Amino acid sequence: MSVLSEINPDVRRIKISEHDILDERAEQIRTEIRQGLVKRYKDVIDVSSGNPHGMGLKPLTFVRQVLATCFYPPLVHDESLPLDVRQRAQSLLAECDGESIGSYPATYGMKHVRSSVSTFITRRDGVVSDPDNIIISNGSQHALILILKLLVQGRGLQQTGVLTPVPCYRSFNKGLVAQGAVSVPYYLCEEQGWTVQVEELRRALQAARGHCNPMVLYLINPGNPSGHVQSKASIEEVIRFAAEERLFIMADEVYQGCVFGKDSEFYSYKKVLSEMGPPYSTNVELASFHSVSKGFMGECGLRCGYVEMVNLDPQVMRYAYQAFSFNALASVPGQITLDVMLNPPQPGDPSYAVYAQEVKSVMSAIKNNAQRIMDVVSGLPGMTCQPINGGIFMFLRLHLSKAAIEHAEEKDLEPDLLYSMRLLEDTGLCVAPGCELRQKQGTHHIRICLATPEEIMEDVLHRLKSFHLRFIKEFP
């Protein structure tokens, strides 16, 4: 029998997160409610993570109709389904061996789906995308980890450092630890809307060179949990910095379809890099990621995404394919969903009106929820929030009293974890504490997911407001 000392030390470095603690307690409370234990609330509302369908947003009809038809091919002949649904399912089934989604897909993704990704990127950026530089993966997170596996090496001063934004969602930080990389934190500027600042990148890089070998720059655009959307000028500055310091760029762009801020526009790193021309467009190495899980699609359970690699040496690409060949196989239903996301119904198609209305409804809920949070927080003492321009999260800042911080220290808890635990116990509302997402020392936050029906968000805000007023009264 294996003992703890025989477990991979990089895996042993992964600690139980604050979210795990809250998630476990939330499930216990649900069980207590089912067993009849009287609470001051009737249910648990979990807005701690990005799980839109789990929080009540409905899946898009066209997506599910195509999937249903692919799962049960006789529906191809069912005229109660729109013609474009049946035609799409038929064409996708034709790409599967034996015309069955139960057959193995190609190792790096179905040829048709890789071509769809390439066409989507070309259309989005105005730059030709090569399907051979695209790999379909079992979700964007899986692709991120495999790219890290390709890049991370060494120990001590030679150990690969990855410049990582603060704040940043927990699973990426866990992935860095598991791959044996060193996280090199750079702080987004909260006071300026969580902007990426090159001076801060340079500070982080210089500080890291004394204890590791910084090789990778990781960016999330639009941000999670910050909700910022980088301007084209900002991306250009970052690319120049990466070129100067010979850093490999990993651009996490999974929220690109969820931009709603006034005067905000999504620019991909690939597009900006290409428009900058040589030597940047020919020398800067880039991997960019997208997924069906995020934004208005919200298909978290189907686990499919892609990575496009730009300017990688052919020999490196060969090893990238090797890394993905035994560990990245995406399910066929996930790949079908990816194809639908990148090629939605167009004006004139039978399903277009319903599809467009459903997407509009989801985006409207996210945008309206963001505005409602801003409205409520603006009237709460001890809480502030930066306006957001994209993504599905808001990162609320808690301005806690000295008494509250000292009470947390007595309990051996981070202050925002204490706040989140009390919030869960008292109101049944589960949020993500800022300490698990990292934050500037001396600041405290909570993260709330916006991808939920508006009526549920009203309940969320009622619970949060009433608790917060009681909390600051208890700890003045």
Mean pLDDT: 93
* Count of individual helical segments: 18
Biggest sheet, in brief? 7 strands, mixed
Distance between the amino and carboxyl termini: 53 Å
Strand content: 5-15%
Total number of strands: 13
**Estimated radius of gyration:** 23 Å
Shape, principal axes of CA atoms: globular
The neighbouring-strand order within the major sheet is 2-8-7-6-5-3-4
Helical content, roughly?
A: 40-55%
Q: What structural category do the secondary elements indicate? A: alpha/beta
Q: Report the uncertain regions.
A: none
What does this structure look like?
This protein is α/β, with parallel strands linked by helices and 476 residues long. The chain has helices spanning 9-12, 18-34, 61-71, 83-94, 111-125, 140-151, 170-178, 198-208, 232-245, 269-276, 280-283, 314-325, 332-342, 352-378, 402-410, 415-427, 434-437, 454-474; strands at residues 45-46, 134-137, 160-166, 182-187, 213-220, 248-252, 286-291, 305-310, 383-385, 393-398, 429-430, 432-433, 444-449. Strands 2-8-7-6-5-3-4 form a seven-stranded mixed sheet, sandwiched between helices. A four-stranded antiparallel sheet has the order 9-10-13-12. A two-stranded parallel sheet has the order 1-11. Helix 9 (232-245) links the parallel strand 5 and strand 6. 44% of the residues are buried. The mean pLDDT is 93.
